[in-house]
Write a structure and sequence with these properties.
Layout lengths: L5 E6 L6 H15 L6 E6 H4 L6 H17 L8 E4 L5 H10 L4 H5 L2 H12 L11 H4 L1 H10 L5 E3 L5 H17 L8 E3 L29 H9 L18 H9 L2 H13 L3 H28 L1 H30 L6
Parallel strand pairs: 1-2, 2-3, 4-5
Bound molecules: tryptophan.
């Protein structure tokens, strides 16, 4: 197996939603089919440990996320699709990297700083109250995910850019101290991939609980779309598409000409109920087939395990010899 041209991880917390689809799953499914690229996609289940402490939820989330990617057409034969926890070389590399990562670098991580600032705001004497080492050293585990496969490019959302900078920093430090083994990975922010708004108009996110699940029943999908917040303009009044969640969601799914037509209807004063119904029908049509695939897949989790196991075998064709090389480089090797 070759090193990764593209690599990205999906934290297994929560149920896959429309925002995950247009932001991460859809572009990844596309590039998974590209025969000229080696793409690695994995379920970051060790990362999920710091976000929730419910074993059942974690397992269910891994199942749902894996099933969603497969149902939406991920070409798992052409790419490398695996679970982080099936690759024991990753935690081993994490410790090796931890040992040369500056604590000061981790002090500057946004996620850690935000939690510490919150503690100070609340007036706690200890700014580290409730903060685990998992949260603090999260960027090192992420660096190991990436460096384990010497990935060249890492597509992520804007919130992950700092983690990529840290990964480069850590890789450069290893290369400097020991030997130049690691490629410094580049971040790829896909400006065309959409960021969806949720039911309340803020970014669609599990943390705001404003999301529309990808594979709920058709009835639930309609019900949730009908709940999208709008203003109080009446049926015949012209409406502004640019500030409207229904419109931006439609745009993330539809072609340019269909979007133009919808825009015209807005200017002419489409009723909110009609706009929502149009959006529902459009999204439902796209999700219909994948929903059936998903419902089948989820019934036989052992088939998904099999796919992930095969992915791990492919991934380890790279990670096992590469970790061996890393161990030799740092002097952890046979003594003879
Ligand atoms: N931290 C990423 C997120 O929350 C998920 C992730 C874990 C990841 N390991 C990765 C992304 C490696 C890219 C590469 O979205």
């Amino acid at each position: 197996m070759k090193n990764a041209d593209y690599l990205t991880g999906i934290t297994t917390s929560g149920t896959p939603h429309l925002g995950n689809y247009v932001g991460a799953i859809r572009p990844a499914v596309e590039s998974s089919k590209n025969k000229d690229l080696v793409s690695y996609y994995f379920l970051a289940d060790y990362h999920s440990l710091i976000k929730n402490h419910d074993p059942k939820l974690r397992k269910q989330s891994a199942l749902e996320i894996a099933a969603a990617w497969i149902a939406l057409g991920l070409d798992y034969d052409n790419c490398v699709f695996y679970r982080q926890s099936d690759i024991p070389e990753i935690p081993e590399l994490t410790w090796i990297l931890t040992s040369l990562t500056a604590k000061g670098l981790m002090n500057r991580a946004h996620a850690y700083k935000a939690s510490a600032a919150e503690n100070i705001d609340k007036g706690y004497k200890d700014q580290d109250k409730g903060i685990t080492m998992g949260l603090f050293s999260y960027p090192v585990l992420m660096a190991a995910d990436i460096l384990m496969f010497n990935a060249r490019k890492v597509p992520v959302g804007k919130d992950q850019v700092q983690h990529l900078e840290m990964t480069r920093d850590i890789a450069a430090r290893f290369n400097h101290i020991y030997k130049k083994l690691f490629i410094l990975p580049e971040v790829v922010i896909d400006e065309t991939s959409a960021v969806l708004s949720g039911l309340d108009g803020r970014k669609m996110s599990k943390s705001y609980n404003n999301y529309i699940p990808l594979f709920d029943t058709e009835k639930r999908l309609r019900k949730l779309i009908m709940k999208i917040k709008t203003n109080s303009l009446g049926p015949d009044e012209p409406k502004d598409p640019d500030t409207c969640t229904i419109f931006s969601t439609f745009k993330a799914f539809a072609s340019e000409s269909e979007t133009k037509y919808f825009e015209k209807q807005y200017r002419n004063g489409i009723a909110w109920g009609t706009a929502k119904q149009t959006l529902f029908e459009y999204v439902n049509e796209i999700l219909n087939e994948p929903r059936k695939n998903y419902q089948e897949l989820i019934k036989t989790p052992s088939d998904i395990d099999e796919i992930l196991k095969q992915g791990a075998v492919k991934a380890r064709e790279f990670s096992v010899p590469f970790l061996d090389k890393i161990r030799k480089t740092i002097g952890i090797q046979t003594l003879g």
